[in-house]
Amino acid sequence: MSEHFLLSRLARDLPVTKVIRMSEDTAYNWFRRARWPETKGKPSCPHCGVTECYVLTRRRSKCRGCRREFSITSRAIFASGIPFRQILAIIALSANGAKGKAALELRREGGQSISRITRGENADCAWDIVRNHVAPNVHIFADEHAAYDELVGLCDLTRVNHQVAYLHGKGVSPNQIKSFFARVRRAYRSVHHRFSVRYLDCYIAELSRREDCSRLGNRGQTVEMLGRALAHPTSRNLCGYWQGNRPPDLVWEPC
Questions:
Q1: How confident is the model over 49-85, as pLDDT tens digits?
Q2: What span, in angstroms and rounded, lies between the C-alpha atoms of 51 and 36?
Q3: pTM, to two decimals
Q4: 79 with 234: CB under 8 angstroms?
Q5: Which residue in 238, 223, 240, 185 sits closest to 27, CA to CA?
Q6: Quick one: which of 213, 225, 210 has its CA closest to 30?
Q7: 108 pLDDT band (50/70/90 cuts)?
Q8: Buried b / exposed e along 36-74 (16+ C-beta atoms within 10 A)
Q9: Is it the case that residue 174 has pLDDT exceeding 70?
Q10: Residue ranges of E strands in the chain
């Protein structure tokens, strides 16, 4: 019997202890390759996109086009004074959490599925979410839930009647998405303990990313998370808490 991927050496190819023992220069090189993969770590201006830049200091550059100075974290969510090695260690710790990682837990330790939120499980909600987020040429697999009856006219649909069988034809089954739903519930109950409605899409997007990358090792997941984070600008929805950015919120509970 072959060894399960999650138990193999490929799934643990970047121990957190290795990241902690890294030098700051080594961690900085990880950031360079993740921030500018097209130029293999050579700086390009985050303001105008020009790749002709020259180095001012050890970790700051200046654009030859717009003449503006920048660093590797300029206009990114990591624009802070936290050491690169510490950020990389936090990402590696988060990558190791199969069901997610609580923010308070990360704070103490550190010192491409698409998911959408729907308000209900009726036919109207299912039709709206498929119409707005699924391409017409996609083949959908579903069970016999009545909410999926209206999807027949939107795209190709294959359904499995679980009262008769778990599979239909050659391996057609909706059990993969059902296992994802189960992991969402486990993350809610055992990791986060609550999902804020304000950030519900962020929670689900994070769990979807973990589902997509479940067959990557620690190193692959860390590189993937670092690259996505560096490519994302500062979020106005996630910053400014102490400056009063605290709109009213609700708490969502899974069924």
A1: 888 888 887 788 889 889 888 888 887 777 666 788 8
A2: 10
A3: 0.49
A4: yes
A5: 223
A6: 225
A7: low
A8: beeeebebbbbeeeeeebeeeeebebbbeeeeeebbbbb
A9: no
A10: 53-57, 60-63, 69-71, 139-143, 156-160, 195-196, 251-252
